[in-house]
Design brief:
The complex is a heterodimer of chains A (about 300) and B (about 600).
Chain A lengths: L1 H28 L4 H6 L5 H11 L5 H13 L13 H36 L4 H15 L2 H15 L11 H31 L2 H8 L4 H38 L5 H11 L2 H29 L7
Chain B lengths: L18 E12 L2 E13 L4 E5 L6 H9 L6 E10 L2 E2 L5 H7 L4 E4 L13 H10 L6 H14 L5 H5 L8 H13 L5 E5 L7 H18 L2 E6 L2 H7 L2 E6 L2 E7 H6 L4 H9 L16 E16 L4 E17 L3 E5 L6 H8 L6 E6 L2 E2 L5 H8 L2 E4 L3 H4 L6 H11 L5 H14 L16 H13 L5 E5 L7 H18 L2 E6 L2 H7 L2 E6 L2 E7 H6 L4 H9 L23 E3 L9 E3 L5 E3 L1
Parallel strand pairs in B: 3-8, 3-9, 6-7, 7-8, 13-18, 13-19, 16-17, 17-18
Antiparallel strand pairs in B: 1-2, 1-4, 4-5, 9-10, 11-12, 11-14, 12-21, 14-15, 19-20, 20-23, 22-23
Helix pairs in contact in B: 3-4, 3-6, 4-6, 6-7, 10-17, 14-15, 14-16, 15-16, 16-17
Classes of the chains: A mainly alpha (about 300), B alpha/beta (about 600).
Chain lengths: ~300, ~600
């Protein structure tokens, strides 16, 4: 177990290094110039050159990357170009909001998706299955901002059940979390359905029925834990896609998380913030996958960590 | 217990039957209307009796068992007749009441022990659940009963097994767990659907002995569904022979084997391979087609922080053999003995140590082009013809594909060759444009054989090629293989677990155990005068399709084969082969 964790952590560090390098390189070759954004249109060439020197942006690429990396190793994410504050402080102040939204969003997407998938599998080929699969198709193909705005309009503007945006109470959390849940539920519904149908036709389900177990017990104790195994692995992989949704939903609902921070930073080419948000997301994806791999052996005794 | 003795005559038992099936008809709903799968089947079953329902695939024997259990697939239903367990008609019983009987008064075990247990629940949890589904006793008490049930099926270390998971047990052990689960609540009727078909022959022997002992102790009535007439002869008091969903014949087992009344039963019994019935053949003395010298195949197991090799699976250890032109060389042994790995090594699918020569050329000394050329000389026929044929290709293309791969002839000549091969294996040339799913299992295996012969190879490796076929089909495919050998002089490496089939087709035999050959010689030497204890055990374990055959009482075994995994640098103990006369080699 210890050697497994150590190996995984070394792998994770290498992945993060790769992500940092690629992102830094892309921002370096970007035709847009962050210095112009900071200096403004009327700045003189001297001012521009000064700012460039101050930020170290006149250095060769590898030197810049090395400086950034050695900062990172000391826990220094650099300073925001525009807000002039430490990026680590900005991230720290906004990360809890995003983590809360992610947790609530993943909960909603699994609760919705898995229930739909199980219900569809149990009514396979009948009307319930068809309605559920149509629904999942709609949620998979609907653009994120459309669903966000639709829910916002109906439940916040028209019905006034929930606030239009902001952060602070449970009521603020409901609409953004449900939006993320609906967006992700279609994938999980389809995956859960096919996994469940496969497991329900397995020999051991026939054995369970031959023992005289109730249908509920056959489904919940024998089929479900087996069917959910491939889905767990998907949750880890899906966090990357999920983060994309978080950026859009945070903007629409004025949720003060790192997604919103990233959105603003991208518009202004605020490189330290973009780098920091990318790395935090990469850490979330890596940890999500590690967590999924660590949970699986608890359900499936055939999988051993070594 | 005062268990009734098995009733072995046509005499009806004095007591009322435990189960009586009257005019049972089971139909599947299709777009063209209801289609019967089982027609007008009637039988009754008494306490302590074993009734075998025998038949080939598609005969309706499994559907009958599922109908009795109320476990028919969604679009299949009982359309007429009754299934009475005591006074209760199961055919019309609502699901809730049926569920209360299922597993309690009527239980079932299935063919595939590897997949019939839930992989993520412990053995104990699955047994306890089965008991508590019908008897709401405290968990600890149910666990104690589960332990008793495991002891009753003679499973080694029963306390430890309770906390183990199915993947930690071998196939034979899993089938014992299934039997323990089925019999834990002492059902009146046990339906055993091909209970030993997926097991090795020595394990089959143990499980059959176990079922018989338990039946004697508990007085359970058993319905034994099987295709194996050997198992029928050894286990059953009465037999129903089924074909296409209907009963062909029913009789007491002895009478049926002695005087089969119907033509179908006669042909079925005639097709059963019997030990000691094969005609003698002259020993082929042609040139050597394949020669293996000290061949080993090991698979690495990695572990630790850096993923270094720590252990090796010694799949094949120091095997030497040679196969001559026109000869059938058989490799026999139980699962995991390395017989299929040898086949893979010969065709170059797994890396090997030692020397493999085919047609005088050593495999390891050839470059890529040389290896490709050599593959022309060695072709394979696999166990499952449905999986070995690409479902999206026409069978004519499948048969001529080897010619295409090796750049032989043009499209017209390749098609002509496919037509010629089709005719040779007993299919007609106008079937060339059909797809594999339009053929039966036996026909598909003929297609695979035609494909293997397309390049005129010197050696054909038949890896369990007839194991998945019904006996009558199996007999015809074996005849075909023999005829093709006479005609083309091809050599066969025939790999099988079925001793009777091997005895019927082989010229020379090698018996494998844990990756090594423990006995080899001509068929007459190995089968007529088996020397190694393992060979004897294999031969003795084969069910004999003759109810009059008296089996010598043997100790009830439940031994497990040791593991072929060894730490790096260590290995299994090598056996040394000793010549006991005229090339008959036996491990000492």
């Amino acid at each position: 177990m210890a050697s497994y964790l150590l190996r995984r952590l070394i792998q994770s560090a290498l992945i993060l290094l790769g992500v940092a390098f690629v992102t830094f390189f892309l921002l370096y070759v970007l035709p847009a110039d962050p210095v112009r954004q900071i200096a403004g249109r009327s700045a003189t060439p001297e001012t521009v050159a000064n700012i460039r020197r101050e930020l170290g942006l006149d250095q060769p690429f590898l030197v810049q990357f090395w400086h950034y990396l050695s900062g990172l190793l000391h826990g220094d994410f650099g300073r925001s170009y525009l807000q002039k504050t430490q990026v680590s402080e900005l991230i720290a102040s906004r990360l809890p909001a995003t983590l809360l939204l992610m947790a609530a969003g993943i909960f909603c997407e699994l609760a919705l998706g898995l229930t739909m998938g199980i219900a569809a599998a149990l009514t396979k080929g009948r009307i319930g299955d068809q309605v559920l699969m149509m629904t999942s198709f709609v949620t998979v193909s609907a653009p994120q901002f459309v669903v966000s705005l639709l829910l916002l309009y109906v439940f916040a503007v028209q019905l006034s059940w929930f606030p239009v945006g902001g952060y602070g109470s449970f009521r603020h959390l409901v609409l953004p979390a449900v939006t993320l849940g609906i967006l992700g539920s279609g994938w999980y519904a389809r995956m859960m359905r096919s996994s469940m149908i496969e497991v329900l036709s397995a020999d051991f389900i026939r054995t369970a029925r031959a023992k005289g177990l109730t249908r509920a017990r056959v489904v919940l104790r024998h089929a479900l834990p087996n069917a959910i195994l491939p889905v767990i692995a998907m949750i880890g992989i899906d966090i990357g896609v999920f983060m994309g949704g978080v950026v859009v939903v945070e903007s629409v609902f004025a949720w003060p998380g790192i997604g919103q921070l990233a959105w603003q930073a991208i518009q202004r080419i605020d490189i330290p913030i973009i780098m920091a948000v990318t790395l935090v997301s990469a850490v979330a994806i890596v940890l999500g996958n590690l967590l999924a791999d660590l949970i699986t052996p608890f359900i499936d005794p055939r999988i051993k960590i070594r | 217990m005062t268990a009734a003795l098995p009733i072995s005559g046509a005499e009806p038992a004095p007591e009322a039957p435990v189960l009586s099936v009257r005019n049972l008809t089971v139909s599947v709903a299709t777009e063209a209307g209801a289609k019967p799968l089982v027609r007008d089947l009637s039988f009754s079953l008494h306490r302590g009796e074993t009734l075998a329902i025998a038949g080939e695939s598609g005969s309706g024997k499994s559907i009958t068992s599922l109908a009795i259990m109320g476990l028919l697939p969604p679009n299949v239903a009982i359309s007429a007749g009754s299934v009475c367990l005591g006074a209760t008609d199961l055919a019309t019983l609502p699901e809730r009441q049926m569920r209360a009987l299922r597993g309690d008064r009527i239980a079932m075990i299935f063919q595939e022990p590897m997949t019939s247990l839930n992989p993520i629940l412990s053995v104990g949890a699955q047994l306890v659940e089965a008991i508590r589904a019908h008897d709401p006793i405290p968990r600890a008490e149910a666990r104690a009963r589960a332990l008793d049930a495991l002891r009753a099926v003679r499973l080694s270390q029963p306390e430890r097994r309770l906390d183990q998971y199915p993947h930690e047990l071998s196939g034979g052990m899993r089938q014992r767990v299934m039997i323990a689960m089925a019999l834990a609540l002492r059902p009146q009727v046990l339906i055993a659907d091909e209970p030993t078909t997926a097991l090795d022959v020595t394990v089959q022997r143990e499980v059959l002995d176990l079922l018989r002992d338990l039946q004697r102790d508990l007085g359970t009535a058993i319905i034994l569904i099987t295709h194996d007439m050997g198992v029928v002869a050894e286990m059953a008091d009465r037999v129903i022979v089924m074909q296409n969903g209907a009963q062909v014949e029913t009789a007491a087992t002895r009478d049926l084997f002695a005087r089969p009344a119907q033509a179908y039963t006669q042909s079925l019994l005639a097709a059963v391979p019997r030990m000691g019935s094969a005609p003698a053949r002259p020993a082929p003395e042609g040139e050597v087609v394949a020669r293996l010298t000290d061949v080993s195949v090991r698979f690495a197991l990695r572990g630790g922080l850096l993923g270094r090799v720590t252990h090796q699976v010694h799949a094949v250890e120091q095997v030497s053999l040679q196969i001559r032109r026109g000869e059938t060389f058989a490799l026999v042994g139980e699962s995991g003995c390395g017989k299929s790995t040898i086949a893979k090594a010969i065709v170059g699918l797994v890396p090997h140590q030692g020397r493999i020569e085919v047609a005088g050329l050593a495999l390891s000394e050839l470059d890529a082009a040389g290896k490709k050329a050599l593959r022309r000389q060695v072709q394979m026929v696999f166990q499952d013809p449905a999986a070995a044929l690409d479902p999206r290709m026409r069978v004519g293309d499948l048969v001529s594909e080897p010619l295409l791969i090796h750049g032989q002839g043009d499209a017209a000549s390749r098609r002509a060759r496919a037509a010629e091969l089709f005719a040779r294996v007993g299919l007609s040339a106008d079937q060339l444009d059909r797809y594999p799913h339009e053929f039966s299992g036996g026909q598909r295996q003929r297609i695979c054989i035609a494909r293997a012969l397309a390049l005129n190879p010197q050696l054909v490796i038949a890896d369990e090629s007839v194991s998945a076929l019904d006996v009558s089909v199996q007999a015809r495919v074996l005849d075909l293989l023999r005829a093709l050998q006479t005609e083309f002089g091809v050599a066969y490496l025939f790999i099988s677990h079925d001793m009777a089939v091997v005895e019927n087709i082989s010229d020379r035999v090698a018996v494998m155990y844990l990756g090594q050959i423990v006995e080899t010689g001509t068929r007459a030497q190995v089968f007529g005068n088996p020397q190694h204890p393992y060979t004897r055990r294999l031969i003795e374990a084969v069910p004999v399709p003759d109810p009059e055959h008296v089996r010598v009482a043997s100790p009830r075994l439940s031994a497990e084969i040791p593991s072929p995994v060894h730490a790096l640098g260590q290995g299994p103990q090598r056996v040394r082969l000793h010549d006991v006369g005229e090339g008959h080699l036996v491990a000492v």
